[in-house]
Amino acid sequence: MIETKGYIGTYKVFYEEVYNENGNPLPSPNEDDSYLLGRSNSQIYRYDQNNLSIYFPKGKSTENVVLPLLDNLNVTYELFVSGDSESIYIVPEKYINELNTVLSFKTKGAKEQLKDHKRKLKELKKQSKNVK
Question: In this structure, which of 73, 74, 80, 81 has its CB flanked by the most CB atoms within 10 Å?
Fold first, then answer.
């Protein structure tokens, strides 16, 4: 997946975890594997340069509530994949505000995350100047 870091400071950006042999969670080695977390644990990932994907992990119940609400807001979406207990839809990124209206992305900690992100960028710039 392509990162969702462009939303740092507006929404809380979550990162995928991998698990070691003891079952303990570790950060994913792929820093770009990030998502926005919405109601009922729905997740918004970047699909490509212009589109987002909505992952519904809890089956049809969340999907059956959310999709009609998106329809009411004239949001276009397309089913990408569907299984017994999960589904993924592709949505143009221009509908990010409508998605937030329906899915209520998590925001607690977003401002602190933005400060950390800016600090890390500043450190990287400083390191790159020292390398020259």
Answer: 80
